[in-house]
Fold:
Amino acid sequence: MKFILLLLLLFSFQIFAFCSPSKSKIKIGQPVELGKIPDSITKAESKTDPFQSFLIQEMKDLVGHDDLIFDNISGTGYASGMDGWIWKLDFKTGKAERWFDPPLNPAGMSFLDNKKDKIIFCSSRLGGEKHPDNEKVGLYEIEITTKKFRSLVKILPKSSSRDFGKVYTAKERKPFLIKDLKPENSRPFSLCNDIAISPDADRIYITEPFERDDAAMGSGAVPEAIGLFPHGKLWLYERKNESVTLLLSGFTFIDGILLEKSANQKEESVVFTETTRFRIIRAFLEGEKSGKSEVVLDNLPGLADGMERDEQGKIWVGIIKPRSKVINFIHRNPWIKPFVLSLPQSILPVAKNTGILVLNPEAEKVLYFKMHDGSKIRDISVAVPNGKRIYFPVFDKTSRGLFSIPSENFSLIE
Structure:
């Protein structure tokens, strides 16, 4: 009934949509026919909800956050808070506190290497927040002991907007030294979202979900989820020569990313979430398939956000929001999108459900799936395995606390 009423509302205002100027500069993509959830996912769906029975909440001062990293030797962790701070988690005292105030709002994070003495992180605007003009979107580095801080990438080479679904081969890639980027051949970083770092700590892969002057995370990304235009990019920053290279272009909202190694231990391919396109993609950077991509999993039950591997290599994916019949209809009929984009976000339907998906190390088999009704936890951005627990960053400004579930409470398909 709610779906029918919403459709009636949309049709009743159809004329208004085409007679009124759009409040946004959102590009509209082509029609997309979303299919049913694959049997491989529904068959792996858990009959019980571990979030109802086993969810642990601690460090209740911690605000909603996008990502988590852990140093088990020192008994500490770090969270990229939605209040604009990087938070330090002390597992010896059980307390969380603000630790460092970076530019804008921190997002995806990683320790640089196994020494865990430096943190590499993305920082971007957050929807609904006011940020100082002198603070810039980009990739940053901070030394943990001294808090010595520096920017790595704040501007990017200008690139063609006509390359859709493009994976550049080694011959097609054009590295730019950061020092050679000038106003005439560069642009500001739109949205630095997530990162993955090579084992030798030289290569940092950076996702840019979409390119827009006023790009922002959270509510700022909702219009892009509606528009569904493929202008997401993947960048490579090389620390040794301080260069940046475009690796992928023309994908839809590239978000979470993982590296895959070949026999020579170099990154032959990457796996990433096309969040608003409801699928997971593998792109080949080297080897016989270089320049090609393939769909790993399509028609996901929700918005796949970040991804992490556990000690066995299994892939844990956060499903921040579910897919709905309304979304299916809108993407099938993009003519209605200008009107939907003209509506205040506050009146758009927002589901409470959130969940996780687990894949085998090769991303070929679904091992687990569960959507939670949102009564215990909301907006899971990623599932982070650590020790004997799975931790769940919550990308919700009203959230408080560090959430986890003992891993023994997840019955994965063998």
Observations:
- The chain has one domain: 30-409.
- Residues 1-23 have pLDDT under 50 and may be disordered.
- The domain at 30-409 is CATH 2.120.10.30 (Neuraminidase).
- The longest strand covers residues 243-251.
